[in-house]
Design a protein that fits this description.
The chain contains 7 helices and no strands. The longest helix is centred in the middle third of the chain and has 47 residues, at 92-138. It is 76% helix and 0% strand. The protein has 4 domains: 1-36; 39-80; 82-140; 177-208, no CATH class. Mean pLDDT is 75; it is low at 219-231. The protein is mostly helical and 240 residues long. Belongs to the troponin I family. One of its GO terms (biological process) is locomotion.
Length: 240
């Protein structure tokens, strides 16, 4: 009996230890999972949140467009006057009254437009001045908008200004190259381009021409003496 009781106690102690080990393992796995998440926003939650924000922004944009359209229609309804049927009116005084009302309304709207434009331009100038001051305090500066000008535009402009004084010579700005230098360069290039066999032929021709030039030329006999004798005989016959 004592042995069976000891075995039961050992078995229960082993089961208890196994359960503790299993619970410890589960707790460790849960802790590791929490560490792996690294925050509340998981990728799936981020995706859903982004989608909701896009839908909300689209709805807000549509609502703003609808409000602006309603305000525009309301402003047009307040500023415009319903035109009467002028074709059915024959009274000149009534027509002049309608004309006067429309003209006064037009002048009033033009005055309001001018005042609004002045306020807008003044406000924009103040905003620009304040922006420049803020940038100066921060140590920044606004880059001015530069206009890109082509070099050809400047050249044509200068040529147009000179045309008033006289004829423009576009070759005056070109570089001057001496003719002798150009000829020497071209001759050197031509000599370098000739093949070796052409040089050998020239040397052979020069050697053949040298002995021919050294040989003495035959002296031609005078043939003009005979006609002189005949002329003398003719003169003697005439004298006789």
């Amino acid at each position: 009996m004592s042995e069976e009781a000891g075995e039961d106690a050992q078995r229960k102690a082993a089961e208890r230890e196994a359960k503790k080990a299993e619970v410890r393992k589960r707790l460790e796995e849960a802790g590791n999972k929490k560490k792996a998440k690294k925050g509340f926003l998981t990728p799936e939650r981020k995706k859903k949140l982004r989608k909701l924000l896009m839908v909300k922004a689209a709805e807000d944009l549509k609502r703003q467009q609808l409000l602006k359209e309603q305000e525009r229609h309301k402003a047009l309804a307040d500023r415009t006057i319903p035109l009467p049927n002028v074709d059915s009116i024959d009274d000149k005084g009534q027509l002049e009254k309608i004309y006067g009302d429309l003209w006064s309304r037009l002048t009033q709207l033009e005055e309001e437009k001018y005042d609004i434009n002045q306020i807008v331009s003044q406000t924009e100038a103040e905003i620009n001045a304040l922006t420049i001051e803020v940038n100066d305090l921060r140590g920044k500066f606004v880059k001015p908008s530069l206009k890109k000008v082509s070099k050809y535009d400047n050249k044509f402009k200068q040529s147009g200004e000179k045309k008033a004084g006289g004829k423009e010579d576009f070759r005056a700005n070109l570089k001057i190259v001496k003719k002798d230098v150009m000829e020497s360069i071209t001759n050197v290039k031509k000599k370098d381009d000739k093949p070796d066999w052409s040089k050998k032929n020239k040397e052979a021709k020069a050697e053949e021409a040298a002995p021919a030039a050294a040989a003495p030329e035959p002296v031609a006999e005078p043939e003009a003496a005979e006609p002189e004798v005949e002329e003398e005989e003719g003169e003697e016959e005439e004298e006789e």
